[in-house]
């Protein structure tokens, strides 16, 4: 049997750690990991890439849109509502990096995603990641996933989780 490829559609201004993670996955998975970059916040280009993907692979691909919510380079705030609509239309997961919005945006500093107009509608296709190392100045981070299976998968496959150590007592 043939494996279903995973396709990542990543905003070119996304944090280097996201770009590096996709490169690492490509090195391990080869042709079963495909990466497409689109110009920052160019959602028309993103939909063109998704249309082309569907034309070439149909439903024989697992698609993930990857974007920051606030750019670490320019401070640009991304249109998360538009990204959600695109993810829904093309049946993609949407990975949002909230590292630069936690404690700085949204009610009580909960980030850009907390301000989404229709969160409940999109929650099953969202992966939201944040780090506490920016505005909160603490060690740690989080990933919010739509289901228990994905949570177990991430726990079982993440070297950062498997090989991490407890915090030092002074922390």
Provide the succession of SSEs: EHEHEHEHEEHH
Q: What is the percentage of strand-forming residues?
A: 15-25%
Low-confidence stretches: none
- Gross morphology is globular
Strand neighbour order, sheet with most strands? 2-1-3-4-5-6
Helix content: 25-40%
Class by alpha and beta content: alpha/beta
Rg result: 16 Å
Number of strands: 6
Distance between the termini: 49 Å
Report the average pLDDT across residues: 87
| Number of distinct helices | 6
Largest sheet: 6 strands, mixed
Any overview of this molecule?
- It is a single chain.
- With 171 residues, the chain is of the alpha/beta class.
- 33% of the residues lie in helices and 20% in strands.
- A six-stranded mixed β-sheet has the order 2-1-3-4-5-6, sandwiched between helices.
- α1 links the parallel β1 and β2.
- 25% of the residues are buried.
């Amino acid at each position: 049997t043939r494996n279903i490829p995973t396709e990542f559609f990543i905003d070119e201004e996304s944090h280097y750690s996201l770009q590096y993670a996709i490169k690492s996955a490509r090195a391990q998975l080869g042709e079963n990991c495909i990466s497409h970059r689109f110009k920052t916040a160019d959602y028309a280009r993103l939909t063109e890439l998704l249309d082309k993907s569907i034309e070439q692979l149909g439903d024989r691909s697992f698609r993930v849109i990857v974007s920051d919510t606030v750019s670490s380079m320019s401070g640009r705030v991304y249109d998360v509502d538009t990204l959600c609509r695109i993810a829904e239309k093309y049946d993609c997961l949407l990975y949002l990096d909230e590292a630069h919005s936690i404690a700085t945006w949204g009610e009580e500093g909960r980030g850009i995603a907390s301000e989404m107009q229709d969160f409940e509608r999109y929650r099953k296709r969202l992966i939201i990641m944040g780090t506490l190392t920016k505005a909160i100045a603490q060690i740690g981070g989080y990933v919010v996933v739509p289901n228990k299976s994905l949570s177990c998968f991430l726990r079982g496959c993440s070297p950062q989780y498997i090989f991490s150590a407890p915090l030092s007592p002074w922390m």
